[in-house]
Write a structure and sequence with these properties.
Rossmann fold
């Protein structure tokens, strides 16, 4: 029976578009395209582990006129795939750089998938402010902390507590190397190891995220608790679609 169930599951997955991508993130994109009339977007930091998959999913499944994928670490696969999609553009760089929103220009939506908790100097809430200026839709999929009363810089918890609250071990690379001297300068990013986006930085709580978005003039149109993140008891994947206040959904 188990073999039969697995066989059926494989057939069903095989018929789904981009079956290896997270279905909750695809649902966010579908919602924004179908209900919020998103026809252009910037996918920020969308290369790691998916090779720009959410950019290409959106372009293939919806009527997207213009898409920009921004990341510091591009792969040959991403560069090759982008050639197949008319209207796609690749920018190599850190989307936290102050000049990046102007390089991107105005778009309907911005994807922040698994990236917000990594942003320091500018911090996660400053990133929201930067991109709220050039977009009317912000799609956020983030690992949210349910054991904290307020958003916390995880490094401030101390080394032992830090590793209790992230999905990595002290002897695991690159954390093992990075934590030898957090004040040393990272050769690629030109900033201290403690301030790079390659490590977990923030324990963000929903209340602070919602408050920040409200201050920026955005209303939440979609929310989903997507379940616990790995083995971390106090971390959950939450999906949000925010739209600038005053804009109504399509039906």
């Amino acid at each position: 029976m188990k073999k039969e169930i697995k066989a059926i599951a494989r057939k069903v997955l095989g018929r789904l578009p981009f079956p290896n991508l997270n279905p909750d993130k695809k649902e966010l994109i579908d919602f924004a395209c179908q209900r919020l009339d998103m026809h252009s977007f910037a996918d920020l930091g969308g290369v790691w582990n998916v090779d720009g998959g959410y950019t290409f999913y959106a372009m293939e499944q919806h009527q997207i006129r213009h898409a920009i994928l921004v990341d510091t670490d591009l792969t040959p696969s991403v560069l090759e795939k982008s050639k197949r999609y008319l209207g796609s553009k690749i920018i190599e760089g850190n989307f936290g750089h102050p000049s990046m929103p102007d390089r991107i220009g105005e778009v309907d939506g911005v994807f922040l998938f698994d990236t917000l908790l990594h942003q320091v100097n500018p911090n996660w809430d400053d990133i929201l402010r930067m991109y709220a200026r050039v977009s009317r839709i912000l799609l956020i999929f983030n690992q949210q902390y349910i054991n904290l009363r307020t958003t916390t810089r995880l490094l401030e918890l101390g080394r032992e507590e830090y590793f209790r609250n992230v999905p990595h071990a002290p002897d695991e690379e690159p954390y093992k190397t990075y934590f030898r001297d957090l004040d040393a300068i990272h050769p690629q990013h030109g900033r201290p190891y403690r301030d790079i986006h390659n490590i977990w930085q923030w324990g963000i709580v929903d209340a602070d995220l919602l408050s920040r978005m409200s201050e920026l003039g955005f209303k939440m149109h979609f929310y989903k608790n997507c379940g616990r993140f790995g083995q971390l008891r106090n971390v959950e994947n939450h999906a949000f679609a925010f739209c600038r206040s005053g804009i109504t959904e399509s039906r």
